[in-house]
Write a structure and sequence with these properties.
Keywords: Membrane, Transmembrane, Transmembrane helix. The protein is mainly alpha-helical. It contains 5 helices and no strands. The protein has one domain.
Length: 145
């Protein structure tokens, strides 16, 4: 790299991370709605409340993080990293509990949700990878200007 070339400011990773975080947050808002429906029904209250609260937490982290990344704010990167990691932890928890016979997050059958969970992990891993990338750190440091 010559002295005239500057390293990327990170918009190439920061903006896609923000978009993925917002899409993940919207996905989890659907889960919040599903949890609310489960709460209103006459199903297992504990499972319904767990579904509602976990989706609400992940949705809030990802949406706040996505908006923060679009605005090129440091808190946006931290919220996005935390939200994507929380989503991945939640998906692993779904698998572990399903193996133990406990199904939640709207899953009620006895089949292991491996395929379903694998599909969910792809955007969460991509979001996390983009958010932790050094160019994204530069993005939130240098901003839009």
């Amino acid at each position: 790299m010559s002295t005239d070339e500057q390293p990327s400011r990170g918009g190439g990773t920061g903006i896609p991370a923000a978009i993925l975080a917002l899409l993940g947050g919207i996905f989890h808002l659907v889960g919040v709605a599903g949890g609310a429906v489960m709460l209103a029904g006459d199903g297992a209250l504990g499972r319904a409340l767990l579904t509602f609260l976990l989706h609400l937490i992940v949705a809030a982290l990802l949406i706040v993080g996505g908006v923060g990344l679009i605005l090129a704010k440091r808190f946006g990167r931290m919220f996005t990293i935390t939200g994507a990691a929380a989503a991945l932890l939640l998906y692993v928890m779904v698998l572990v509990l399903a193996a133990a016979g406990v199904h939640f997050l709207g899953l009620s059958d006895t089949a292991m949700p491996v395929g379903y969970t694998a599909v969910l992990c792809v955007p969460a891993v991509a979001t996390l990878a983009l958010a932790v990338a050094p160019p994204t750190a530069r993005w939130v440091t240098s901003g839009w200007s």
